[in-house]
Amino acid sequence: MRLYLASTSPARLATLRAAGVEPILLSPGVDEEAVVAAAGPLGAAAMVELLARRKAEAVVEAEDASARIDGFVLGGDSAFELDGVVYGKPHRPEVAFERWMLQRGREGVLHSGHWLIDHRGGRTREAAGAVVSAIVRFADDLGDDEIAAYVGTGEPLRVAGAFTIDSLGGAYIDRVEGDPHAVVGLSLATVRRLLLRFGVQWHELWNRIPGRPS
Asked: Exposed, middle or buried: residue 207 (CB in 10 Å: 0-12, 13-18, 19+)?
């Protein structure tokens, strides 16, 4: 059973690999800002599910999808919410720095959307989605120099909410309430449950277990 990941996120890829799954990577090429603008006002949870869906659909709607995709296609998207405001990737250092000044010592919610399409046999059969949210508590003793050093690595520019828990940003997170994988951007437990809807068990995707041929 093959899993196709409709995402360019290194964190999602690393999460799947650590869990025994080597997916086939397919870049969805979705204009996220255009998708959100066309949808109109959305809450954070609805927005990440919509974007996850569009990414997965873009992959299976590609001209050669029927010939090269035989398995499940997974799309994902994440956004961070603080005080009712939704934050995506900051892109610029000054924006990332301002966000960290705002969120240190506080709690926010990281929303991760998932959309799974059953494309076995080279055609779309069914699809299902889910959103998982987790509360993230940031260190309250974080100095301006630490924030500047972290922003200077470039890592926070490329991730929702300007932070990670599985890489350089992990030292600045005090607590996570909820699924920690959701904060990384891909809830393994959620993907497992989505697969069960299609009669597939998680271990059927394993293809990189140590000592076992892939």
From this structure: middle
Whether 212 is in a domain gets the answer no
Q: Which domain holds residue 189?
A: 3-205
185 in the Ramachandran plot: left (φ > 0), alpha (ψ -120 to 50) or beta? Answer: left
Could you tell me if 112 and 76 are in contact, meaning their C-beta atoms sit under 8 angstroms apart? yes
Residue 143 lies inside a defined structural domain of this protein: yes
Q: Structurally, how many domains does the chain consist of?
A: 1
Per-residue pLDDT of the chain (214 residues; tens, 9 = 90+): 999 999 988 999 999 999 999 999 999 999 988 999 999 999 999 999 999 999 999 999 987 777 789 999 999 999 999 999 999 889 999 999 999 999 999 999 999 999 999 999 999 999 999 999 999 999 999 999 999 999 999 999 999 899 999 999 999 999 999 999 999 999 999 999 999 999 999 999 999 887 665 5
Give the span between the Cα atoms of 133 and 10, in whole angstroms.
20
Specify if 210 maps to a domain: no
- Report the CATH number that the domain containing residue 55 is assigned in CATH: 3.90.950.10
The answer to whether residue 121 is domain-embedded is yes
Catalytic residues: 77
